Request: fold
Amino acid sequence: MSSTKRYWQDLAQLDQVAEATKGRDDEFRAPMPIDEMLADKGLTGATTGRRDFLKFLGFGLGAASLAACETPVIKSIPYVNKPEEIVPGVPTWYASTYYDGQDYASILVKTREGRPIHIMGNPRHGINRNPRLDKGTINARINSSVLSLYDGERLQGPMMKGAEGMTASTWAEADKVIAGKLAELSTAGKRIVVLTPTLISPSAKAAIGQLRNRFGAKPAAEGQPAASGAPVDHVQFDSISHAGVTKANEKSFGLRVMPSYDLTKADVLVSMDCDFLSSWGSTTEHAWQYASRRRPEDGAMSKHWQFETRMSITGANADERVAIKPSELARSVIGLHDAVARKAGAGTAGGGLDHPQLAAAADALWAAKGKALVLCGSNDEAVQVLVNRTNDLLGAYGSTIDLANHSWFFQGDDAAMAQLVKDMNAGQVGALLIAGTNPAYCLPNAADFKAGLAKVDLTVCMSTHADETASLCQWACPDHHYLEAWDDHMPKVGRYALSQPVIRPLFDTRQWQESLLRWSGATGSYHDLIKSTWEAALAARADAATLPPFNSVWQNSLHDGVYEAYTNANTPVPFAGDVAAAAAAAGKNAAGGEWELVLYTKEGIGDGRHANNPWLQELPDPLTKVTWDNYVLMAPSDMKRLGLQTYLGQESPASVVTVSANGAELQLPVVPAPGQKAGTIAIAVGYGRGANGEKVGKAACLPNADGTATPVGRNAWPFVTLVNGTASMAVGNVAVTPTGTTYPIAITQTHLTHMDRHSVVKETTLSTWAKHDPKGTYNHQHELAVHEDVNKDGAIDARDRLPVKEFDLWEEHAVEGVGHRWGLSIDLNTCTGCGACVTACTSENNVPVVGKDEVRRSREMHWLRIDRYFSSDMTKERAKEEGLGKIEMYLDMEVPSETPRVVFMPMMCQHCNHAPCETVCPVVATMHSNEGLNQMAYNRCVGTRYCANNCPYKVRRFNWFNYLTDKFSATNPAGSELGRLVLNPDVVVRSRGVIEKCSMCVQRIQAGKLEAKKAGTPLADGAVQTACSAACGTGAIVFGDLNDTASRVTKLHGEERAYMALEEIGVKPNVSYLAKVRNIEETAQAHHA
Amino acid sequence: MPRQSRFSFRSPGLFHALFVLALTLTAAPSLAQPADAALYATGEKVFKGNCASCHKPDKDMTGPALKGARARWEGKGDIYAWVRNSTDVIKSGNPYANELFAKWNKALMTPMAVSNEEIDAVLYYADNYAPAAAKAPAAGTPAPAGEPQEVSFWPWVLVIGLLLLVVALSLGGVRKSLNNAVREAEGKGPLPDRTAWQGFKNWVWHNKVFASVLGLLLLTWGITAAWDWALTIGVYGGDTVAHYKPEQPIRFDHTLHAGKADKGNLAINCQYCHSGAEKSKHAGIPSANVCMNCHQAVTESQRNPWSNAEIKKIHEATGWDGMAYTGTPKPIQWVKVHNLPDLAFFSHEQHVAVGKLECQECHGPIDEQMDQAEQWAPLTMGWCIQCHKDKEVKMAGNGYYDEIMARLEKDEKLGHRELKQYLEDEKITVKELGGWECAKCHY
Reply:
């Protein structure tokens, strides 16, 4: 029934606003200024006559030809001693681990001639591995991190703060001064503090231990008098705090940890404002677990409720989504708890919110007892205690929640951090050694921190950039990029992982653990320390005698990237929390007011540490499709009420409002966000880096016309408040005032996307799907009437119809059944919209970054985009049911729902077998291969752009500029000498004036075929992966050979849900989509909201 | 090594020749060649294909020189039988055959499947053999060996052209005097004195057809010459241009290292040094440590006067002081010889490991003739795709291609149609499997 649901791309389209939709149908909106040029009076007075012009032309041609005759002299310098593992031209892969305090993943790093160029998830090992598909799950932040290595604004050596600011120093000097000062402080008994994000490295902790051994107070023992010394403390500070969760677990179970969740076991999943797919907990693990329960073909599909304020990507994927205010969250959790408790016959807390969806969720949870899970994103300890109790009543512990194999992530303690700032201001801290975190930027009370920093005797920052914190410290001792460093990790109980250097340090940097060891006077490197830590840990095990020799364990771990030591039995721990106290406390913490604000992290920039990464800056936000900025998200109804501009586009800038709360104030543009709870706003943190001119990476700032640079976005961290000892991202009593000014926003949403057609996205409900009648219900076949008696009823009429695929305008290419036929299958159900495929494609195919101004002009270059479609609740069926007339129906369709449904649709070149682009190219620059690929020969292209005009999917991109020139050096990594090292040498860098588009990673196809030919075996299914399919840990994108009858992609193309986008136009794509299935009741959908 | 055919729009020598012929209307000058050039050429071809590994035309090698063989066998037996299967002739008790057998260390000649005509041709070739040394290429334009030389042609044209000019000028003078004499006799007075240019214009006016044809020919020649020249821009190999042969930091001699052992060379397999050829897109310039595998021991050579100095350069590069490595290497800055444009993807691995091509098919007789590496092939796209059009894919015993064939045979609609088209010339070429498609090399 829902197949005719009407989709709209943005509010402008929904409301049919003429000025905003004007020009949308034009692929290239900027007209050529021909009239302007001809009107130029100067032309007639030009001194260059026709004859002169011809002379110049002739001379130019001649000169160019002669110049071309010069024999090239290109030097080629081979190794003197070639490393055994390197063959020039052949990539070498290393297993390593990404961890930055927020994201964690086992990864594989692709290096070419010794330089890392691409990162993918480790398909064989690690907690982010999807064992059902042998895929390693990562996100856009992780696979883009390779680019940060080549950031020219990284600190290139130790710096010392003098009278005239930071001056270059040497490591010898730094070590001498810092170690000397530490010894001095130790003698004086002043406190030494090491400040890091959550440290999951046993060896890094051992390095801090060495520091403690050297400078810390030693107790009197073994006949020695107590030596004088200083307390050496380690404070862990997470910018995205989860302290409420860990503290609640301490209260409930006596374990101050984040548990491991197993979403594969969850039949029913209720998320209370928890963005577990993008920013909460172990996201790379959650994503594959969640997706593996979202394919109805693979067993019972899970049912997912989401109660949240802002539309997160988790909420966009939910079956049922309810918008609530942050101040209602605690009461919603109490309501859910009480509903479950009543069923369990346990004590209730009282005072909870009464909502039909809460009741429905509780019913479903109880029905799925033992296979149910409640997650909550609140950082309020009391709320989390109630969630723990609910899960306990549902029998989640021992099943969907594992405390015996808990994770070690998010150990940060907000209270300890707050205390540290107080101590600093009180002059009680002797030395502050900061590594891997940037408190002067992302601490809500950054001003206090900065003031305190001046009162600390020794401040050393071991960051990669002279960032907000480092520029205030006495010493900047630059850390390696993680691809240059050794490290180990313990993500979970019994699970270990290694990071290894894949390139020599580019600059004179030193990893911070190594620095600690040098200052502690330890001999041996950090690498040695990791080995000895591991050896000791293995020797200490009870079964040490049965283990293989350490060297072989080490070598295997280095090869695999992980060491999986043991797994405990998942035995439930009895709940020991105080429900009544928690309920009482939880109710108190919710501040309301006219406006409420939630802070969140965007998929690209995270907490701000990736602001220097242009790939991530240009990655469109999954829901708003805005690049290069942060902004205020507001419900469209609220925007209309305040008289703000709801139609954003190239010529329609966003209205700016002033947001003030907690004494902080920001001016930000407003972006309409369907799904946002009315009366609330949301702002992304992580922006406004380098606001005081700190060098935090070129991409963190946008160049102005006058040569200055403005930070991208504004810093929203000051809005964070400390409630009950934990940092809260929800803020009440917010004032929002329109300023009357406007601000241009670069949004990829309103252009280069499909027109409003029903055949683009197909969707259905689980019960409809289960009838297994796709053609009759949600996956109609497109037919055309023909002038012959097809149905043999003796008459030629409208009933004589044939499926579209029977029609051929042109002779078909000899692809089907001949050799290979490459194709993709994209599952709209398992695509979470995260965008890892977009950055993977950018990395693999040398896609240029064009910057905010060009994106604003619809000139972004992404070969792969993710279209996001909101739906409107009004359907033709419902209008009929309710007896609405056509006009009323369409008027109703224009009313945005509070909770629109969302579909994410990755869109790339569909490699049509009847490609409309091929027939219009005047120079045959794009043509079909016998493997079904739509090829693009850049050197033939003369840039007519006819192909882009004729592409029904709008996936062709035109190079308006030479993106290697200075103009783009601030944004495009390939524009700088250093950034160019990240380019994939197997893919040509396109130049100005040519069209480019998805090649289905033809370089990988060619390489895979060559391997098979060399081995003399048929090409195995899965041996070739496109960058997007390899990056997709949820398995939404599957690549393979459609002529291989046993391949996975062939099976998926044959599934009931499979359809081609815009099938009716008959272009016969090699890419098929699997229709979206929602686990909802028919009636629930029809009468939703 | 048989020469690779070249993709070319032109045969410049021929066209120039035709034009000059038309202009001068003289007969082609004769070249100093044997009486029956065709037979000589056939003989040379058969000789190089079958005999050259053991025989030389004019010198003894593994087997005797072939020059005069027919005369030596005159009246002593059937030379045709002897060539085709010498063992039988020896067994038959032919005394001369047995004498030869004994003289040449009782080495049997491999039986040859050749016709009498071919044997005749070979013997004719051997008897009339003129050594290649006589055809030294002109200075500065090292033309590949085996190319027919046109050097001797141009002086003749020049001489004849000058002669004709002298004749034409003197005849013109004579004609003018006669004309004037006639006019004087007729009482008309002498013709107005015209400049050469006026005369030429007058002549054109009176010979419009001839002048037009001549003009057209001139224009065509000009355009063709310009086109030919334009096609050599940026081309540094092939038949029509001087090969790119940069001076290298070390005068490495490929003929010494890779040349045939029977010529006193070392016959090292190409891939001993260019080890990437079978496993990477780059064949690779060997790292200096590979050189040291031998040159740690081989520190001197008498091959060339400069050899010892060049070997020293390797030692310097690797930091070898004769006893140990000093740890201060100086990487060698070779000059790249083969420069494909960045827009073209080329994989050695594909061509060597899968296509099973010999190195010489693209790099020319580098092991036999190039004491300094040079670009032999033009490396133009035309040259690439011509080979892709002609070459048969080596499918036998490769499971990958078995699968491709199985799919073609299984698909009755398009598969059968395609397979039939492929096999029209009884072979499946690279082009037919997609080797002419853009995205096979450009991505």
